[in-house]
Amino acid sequence: MGANLKFLLTGFEAFDQSTINPSAEIVKAITVDPQYATFVQPLILPVDTKSAPPALLQSVEFHQPDVILCLGEAAHRPVVSIERVALNLLDFRIPDNNGVIFQDEPIIPHGPAAYFSTIPVRQILHNLLQAGIPAELSLSAGSYLCNQILYTVLHQIAVKQSKQTAGFIHVPSLPQQVVEKNKVYPSMALETSLSAVKQIINTILNTSKTDETIFG
Q1: Most buried by CB count within 10 Å: which residue of 62, 67, 151, 206?
Q2: Whether domain 7-211 has CATH 1.25.40.390
């Protein structure tokens, strides 16, 4: 990797009766930060199974980033989750924002069963914990849109034999979402999640592929 990398940083719009999504708030905050604004391109994706993948691929094609770092919200998770695997699977617990729901469907028919993330997941975990930010390695990005966009971009990279890298980070809900829904589940302050993503970007900038035997 290196200090001259260009990033595409993606988040999602609000969904599942929330008025806010921490991933979108992080993207907005990072791309107005002078330290990151010059090399991080923002993209807020719709929670729409049909339009999110082409929107992502069009942005990748237009901006030609070196790194595609995708963010999403994982309600009920108490820590930042560094996803390792994207599955060729659509299996929704809740509908997308257009009311569409899938069960046991492939993202890309006849595509590989899975792809590994290609960001330095273990170094990211180490650096987050060293910085005092609660974090974990997570086996897969699930089977909702978060997984769909990670699989989609990794498949595109594989088909094009590109040198781009891509990964997915899940962040917990915000405290205000817990208050809005009047339910008891974990949350994380935006400042902490934002610090985590900045640390992740810095780690990717400062980690070469030779530093890890397996990125995913």
Answers
A1: 151
A2: no
90 strand-pairing partners: 105
CB 50 within 8 A of CB 98: yes
Q: What is the pLDDT of residue 214?
A: 45
Do 87 and 154 contact (CB within 8 A), yes or no? no
Rounded (10°) CA dihedral 25, 97, 88, 111 = -110
- Catalytic annotation, residues: 83, 146, 170
| Contact indicator for 63, 6 with CB cutoff of 8 Å | yes
**Amino acid letter at 77?**
R
Listed by start position, the domains of the chain span: 7-211
Task: Locate 184 and state its tokens.
Answer: 């008891």
Res 123 pLDDT > 80: yes
- CA-to-CA distance for 83 and 103, rounded, in angstroms? 21
Q: Kindly report whether the global pTM for this prediction surpasses the value 0.90.
A: yes
End-to-end CA distance of the chain: 15
Q: How far is CA 11 from CA 27, 73, 93, 99, 129, in A?
A: 6, 9, 20, 20, 23
Q: Which value, to the nearest 10 degrees, does the dihedral of the CA atoms of residues 148, 152, 154, 158 take?
A: 150
